[in-house]
Recover the amino acids of this structure.
């Protein structure tokens, strides 16, 4: 039996971005760029390519710059055209969400009560059927798009709630939701449980959940039932676990690479990765490598 279509993507973007202060004092972390492309753009493109119809941004009143970024700005495009920059105006139009083709909803999460609470804020705005959740600070580069791969996997039916997964070093398991995995078949990692941010000595595995989810719509009922968990927050992980008996749970080992752009090292790695493949940056990358190669030491005989 094939699964119903995934028509809604939820983007939890209300977080304060404390790991990137002072930059995030006035710029939402989702607008920090990898070279010239804000993180939120990668997430929007991934959702669009995956065929979602409605995008719900669960944001915060202090982050109105996100609204300005994701929606079309016809005045700015007009100004650019008037200055002979029609190409740039066209590019901006392509990046923005075209409201003729996609519905856009902004919902406010006034208090930082956790990822589970953020997703619950979207409850009254989702279209019928399963829901995708995308965390924009997890940048995932994969030829087809991680969400497209997952939705294809989900459509093959029977997987239950689907969470993107990858192996992380054991010392890092305390930063993630971690799967209690029982078996693997192709990209599917069948799991009998999941725990949010376990200590390494009690973690059931090092199969971490990263920021892409395809969730059965029953997740909202589970989110309404759960109590605060790790860090005193309402955890999406706990709601998935609460509902997995009825719906099932699997990790999805996506192809491609993921950068934790919520951390400085992850963001730097993403920048360097993008730059190394772009001829415009050959020289600067070449100079950097040259300056870090230790000079040959010539010892006197
Ligand atoms: C959230 C989730 C966690 C997941 C992680 C992926 O944690 O709660 O289960 O592994 O995203 O990035 P956060 O990074 O928001 O603390």
């Amino acid at each position: 039996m094939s699964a119903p279509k995934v028509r809604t993507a939820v983007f939890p973007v209300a977080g304060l971005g404390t790991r990137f202060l002072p930059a995030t004092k006035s710029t939402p972390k989702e607008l920090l760029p990898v070279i010239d492309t804000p993180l939120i753009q990668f997430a929007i493109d991934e959702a669009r390519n995956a065929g979602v119809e409605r995008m719900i941004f669960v944001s915060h009143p202090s982050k109105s710059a996100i609204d300005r970024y994701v929606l079309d700005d016809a005045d700015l495009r007009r100004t650019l055209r008037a200055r002979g920059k029609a190409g740039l105006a066209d590019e901006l139009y392509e990046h923005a969400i075209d409201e003729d083709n996609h519905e856009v909803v902004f919902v406010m999460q006034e208090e930082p009560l956790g990822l589970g609470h953020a997703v619950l804020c979207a409850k009254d705005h989702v279209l019928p059927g399963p829901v995708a959740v995308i965390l924009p600070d997890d940048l995932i580069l994969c030829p087809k798009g991680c969400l497209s791969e997952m939705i294809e996997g989900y459509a093959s039916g029977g997987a239950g709630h689907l969470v993107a997964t990858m192996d992380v070093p054991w010392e890092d398991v305390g930063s993630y939701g971690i799967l209690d995995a029982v078996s693997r078949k192709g990209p599917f990692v069948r799991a009998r449980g999941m725990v949010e941010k376990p200590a390494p000595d009690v973690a059931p595995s090092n199969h971490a959940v990263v920021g892409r989810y395809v969730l059965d719509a029953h997740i909202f009922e589970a989110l309404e039932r759960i109590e605060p968990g790790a860090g005193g927050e309402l955890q999406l992980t706990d709601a998935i676990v609460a509902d997995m008996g009825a719906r099932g749970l699997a990790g999805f080992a996506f192809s491609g690479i993921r950068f934790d752009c919520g951390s400085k090292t992850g963001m730097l790695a993403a920048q360097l990765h993008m730059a190394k493949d772009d001829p415009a940056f050959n020289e600067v990358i070449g100079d950097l490598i040259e300056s870090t190669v230790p000079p040959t030491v010539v010892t006197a005989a």
Remarks:
- The chain has one domain: 8-292.
- Residues 115, 135, 138, 176-177, 196, 208-211, 235-237 surround 1-O-phosphono-alpha-D-glucopyranose (CB under 6 Å).
- Residues 8-292 form a domain with the Spore Coat Polysaccharide Biosynthesis Protein SpsA; Chain A fold (CATH 3.90.550.10).
